Every structure is written in C-alpha cells, then in structure tokens.
UniProtKB/TrEMBL annotation:
The protein, known as: RNA polymerase sigma factor
Presence of keyword Transport: no
Pfam family, any one: Sigma70_r2
InterPro entries listed in its UniProt record: RNA_pol_sigma-70-like, RNA_pol_sigma-70_dom, RNA_pol_sigma70_ECF_CS, RNA_pol_sigma70_r2, RNA_pol_sigma70_r4_t2, RNA_pol_sigma_r2, RNA_pol_sigma_r3/r4-like, WH-like_DNA-bd_sf
Organism: Phreatobacter cathodiphilus
Residues in the signal sequence: none
NCBIfam families referenced in this protein's UniProt entry, alphabetically: sigma70-ECF (TIGR02937)
Domain RNA polymerase sigma factor 70 region 4 type: 123-174
Length: 179
C-alpha cells in the first residue's frame, strides 16, 4: 500500500469551508496514527478509537480555528488528539466502554493466574493469599491487567467507591504483611 501525501493545511482550510471530502482525506491519511497516539495515552484500543472519533468531530467543527501562523496543521491535529485522550481519562469514561457483565471471568482468571505463578514460598504470594478473594482479584486486575478502578467496577458489577476502597485497603494490607 502506497502512503498518500495529504496537504493537511489545505485540507483543514477546505474543512473550514464545509468540504467533507477534505475531512475524509485527513481521516485516510492520519486515522491510524491518531489511534496509535490515543492508545498510548488511554491504554485501550476501543477507547482510543472512541477518542479519535470525537477528534474528527472537533476537527470538522473547529477547522476554521486553525491558524497556519501558529504551527503546522499536523501539530494542531495531534494536539487535539492528545487533549481529547487526556480529557477522556480525566472524565472517567474508561468505565463506559466496559461490558455490563456481573463478573468478567476472563480478567478474574488472568489476575488469579498471575498470583498462582508466584513460587509457593514467595512472601508476596503468601500475603496475596491472605486477602479476601474478590479484593485480591480487584487488586490484581488493577496491577497485573492494568484496568482502571472504573473498569474493574464495571467488570465486577460493583460500585466504584467499593473497588477504590478495596484496592487501597488491600495495598495497605500487603504493605503491612510484606513489611
């Protein structure tokens, strides 16, 4: 596949004038890279795709605000991607993309398996085994699988505050046990 070079400055000017084909050109040229940038920030592919969708709406609505005198069009576009991804994280919307399932068995099994891989005499394993099973699972989902508190709450069907408290108390218990 041959990469098509797009004059983003011109495409933004055309978007500002209502040219939908210009927005499509930006999409074809930059979408994959934009998803990559967003994914590095939000850590989840499906959430990155949602971020980029919102970015294209912002580009369409705000193309008239792009000022070529302030910098390259590409920098303007990727600043929007970065800001939208950060705003998505801050808003806690990561939990909105979680399936509403009472318990995500796959994640719970992965987290549990991570603890099981520790050697039998390992102090961390002993301390983890001292935690109540659901609290241990939520802690491992956060630190092994990389899920946010909101995602864990969605996957386990628990209130967000409960998950936050469990993880905090579990960390304190681990610190005490390991100390």
């Amino acid at each position: 596949m041959v990469a098509v070079s797009v004059d983003l400055k011109d495409a933004l000017a055309r978007c500002a004038g209502g040219d939908k084909a210009a927005l499509r050109m930006i999409y074809d040229s930059e979408c994959a890279s934009m998803i990559g940038v967003a994914a590095r920030i939000v850590k989840r592919r499906e959430l990155a795709e949602e971020v980029v969708q919102e970015v294209f709406v912002k580009i369409w609505r705000n193309a008239h605000r792009y000022d070529p005198g302030l910098g390259p069009a590409k920098a303007w576009i990727y600043a929007i991607v970065r800001n939208q991804a950060i705003n998505t994280l801050r808003s806690g919307r990561r939990e909105d993309l979680v399936d509403e399932v009472p318990e995500d068995a796959g994640s719970a099994v992965e987290a549990y398996a991570a603890a099981e891989r520790l050697p039998d005499g390992n102090a961390l394993r002993r301390c983890l085994e001292g935690l109540e099973a659901r609290r241990r699972t939520s802690l491992l989902m956060a630190y092994v699988d990389g899920f946010s508190h909101g995602e864990i709450a969605g996957r386990l069907g628990l209130p967000l505050g409960t998950v936050k408290a469990w993880i905090r108390r579990s960390l304190l218990a681990l610190r005490e046990c390991m100390g």
